[in-house]
Amino acid sequence: MSLLPSSARRWAPIALAVVVLDQLTKWWALNTLDDRDIDLFWTLRFNLSFNNGMAFSQGEGLGPVIGVLALVVIVALVLSVRREDNALADVAVGLIVGGAIGNVIDRLFRDPAWMRGAVVDFIDFQWFPIFNVADMGITIGGILLIAVSWWSARQAEQAEQAEQADGVAGDGAGETNDSPESKDA
Predict the structure, then answer these.
(1) Is 22 a known active-site residue?
(2) Which is the catalytic residue, given 22, 106, 121, 124?
(3) Residue 175 main-chain phi, psi, to 5 deg
(4) Which of 61, 116, 118, 182 could bridge to 50 as Cys pair (CB 3.0-4.6 Å)?
């Protein structure tokens, strides 16, 4: 018997993997990139940066609000996924929850203070905002969740249309015409 509900057993390992990978890569970045950048290829480089705001460095100084909102999103996703029986939705929720937790950990425990910490970013294309593994999980998970929602709505619509078509086809099947005009013929 597991302590986790069945839906959590599906997405929680993915979330845990994202959190662990995110925190390990941030630890690496803090210890390796404090005094240098590493150019990889094309415009991709590892470049240590700290973000006190939200995505794309917007909302500077709103760390506590962003942290609370992230926790609300985590709870909402966890509650909503209980109703889904879709493996891709579980992957999406695991990626989003893991990414959100990874960034909330930074906000909670990094300097300058509790819930005012800066998120560690280090993946830099130089033409796109700098991001981290948690951000990748949130973005990829969000795209997957949108795709799953679209696909599920499409499947439900097709099932409803098929049901309506079966209902229309069944209305005249097997019925006899007992009207007075048919008996006279």
Answers:
(1) no
(2) 121
(3) -90, 145
(4) 118
The two tokens of residue 95 are 């990626």
Q: Yes or no: say if 112 and 23 are a contact pair by the CB < 8 Å rule.
A: no
Answer yes or no: is pLDDT of 5 > 90.
no
- Whether the link from the prior residue into 5 is cis, omega within 30° of 0, is no
> The tokens 């029986």 sit on which residue?
85
Task: Compute φ and ψ for 35, nearest 5 degrees.
Answer: -130, 10
Q: How far apart are CA 133 and CA 137, in angstroms?
A: 6
| Of 137, 116, 125, nearest in space to 25 by CA | 137
φ, ψ (nearest 5 deg) of residue 115 = 60, 10
135 counts as catalytic: yes
pTM for the whole structure: 0.74
What is the tens place of the pLDDT at every residue in 32-73? 998 888 888 999 999 999 887 766 566 666 666 777 777 787
CA distance 77 to 94: 9
Which is nearest to 77 in space by CA: 100, 54, 55, 56?
100
Q: What are the boundaries of each domain within the chain? A: 6-165
And the tokens for 139? 């973005």
Task: Please identify which of the residues 22, 135, 166, 171 carries the catalytic annotation.
Answer: 135
